[in-house]
Amino acid sequence: VNRYRIALVGMGTVGRLHLAAARHVAQADVVALVDPVAPDLQALAAPLGARSYTDAATMLDAEAPDLVCILAPVARHAELVALCAARGVHVLCEKPLALHSAEAATMIHQCRAAGVRLFYGASYRFLPALQAACAIMRDGGIGQPLLMTESILCGSGPADRHKMAPGHYPAGTPGGYGWGLVDHGVHLIDAFAWLSGSAIVSAHGRGSLSGEQGGLEYAIAHHANGAVTQLTYDDGTYPACLPNEGIFSEGAGWDQAGNVDAGQWSAHPQDIRIHGTEGSLRIFHYANILFLRDRAGLRKLPVAGRAPNLHFASQLEAALHDLDDGGQRVPSGEDGRRALQVIDSIYRSMSTGRLEAVGSG
Ligand SMILES: NC(=O)c1ccc[n+]([C@@H]2O[C@H](COP(=O)([O-])OP(=O)(O)OC[C@H]3O[C@@H](n4cnc5c(N)ncnc54)[C@H](O)[C@@H]3O)[C@@H](O)[C@H]2O)c1
User: Is the CB of 172 under 6 A from ligand 1?
Assistant: First the structure.
């Protein structure tokens, strides 16, 4: 089994989760951390014997890593992928892959031309509860999938809506709101195509533009096999869940600050509902809890695997196995581009008022 020299570029919120996860991956040696401003970069790097850098090009030239994990804001993804491809370095890039699908296509082309892998960090595919749900669905356990839905409606009014820091999405482009379609829904757009085994072919909805007041965002998307995806997001309202109504009194939850707590009610736990002709699934993916209801009744199913946030370790490990044997355990740049094509079609539908075919714009 090969060992790989890994560099992490962008040491903010998710960079720190990747760093903690990498310690659990036997094949990974983290050799460098890059961030232009993180004040504690050296302190993060020192215990690993890694070096710290303030810019990616200097790091790439000095370290020649095998794989770079791009964990910087999406506005920086394209230029960072280009730097890696130019030096023949493999890339694992966080979601969203790019600001729009055309930019993603360029990134894919650059990596292909350079002969390097472009892994897309669709981390939801490594959440154990979703992997268990996927296995059930692929076995026909809920029959034909009809509807897959995520709804995050919470908060304490528009003033408290979670805005993205300015460096993430340029003003006037899709994004800018943390629980919106682009920054969050992009996870589900990918995951629902994966779970149902069927691509999204048309979509319509509404999303915000960065720099403007965010609002209720939604999408209705149609899969090739007839299943429907429905997403509704707004953290500028109030939750309608009642205290102790949910299952969080019995399990761990991921609160809105990103902390994992034991046995605490979360104002709006993230959950997914999937309805099929033979059954339904209720998935509390960050709490690692899965329910199946079918003719035999309702039951809670065991969920194996590394619980969040060590799903980032599973993702990195899978990428390194892919480098070992040329496999495709981690989604590719094409998956990232496809998710952005769906987003593009949703934004197009705002001006046409019609259902838009994915990939036609
Ligand atoms: N998979 C997930 O569950 C998940 C969760 C959160 C964020 N993300 C994604 O991760 C990425 C980063 O998000 P975040 O929430 O960690 O953002 P953040 O703002 O907390 O951190 C980003 C970091 O990148 C640094 N940075 C900016 N430009 C850089 C450059 N050119 N080179 C190196 N570093 C640079 C910033 O200084 C900052 O420290 C985004 O694409 C986001 O969508 C994914």
Answer: no
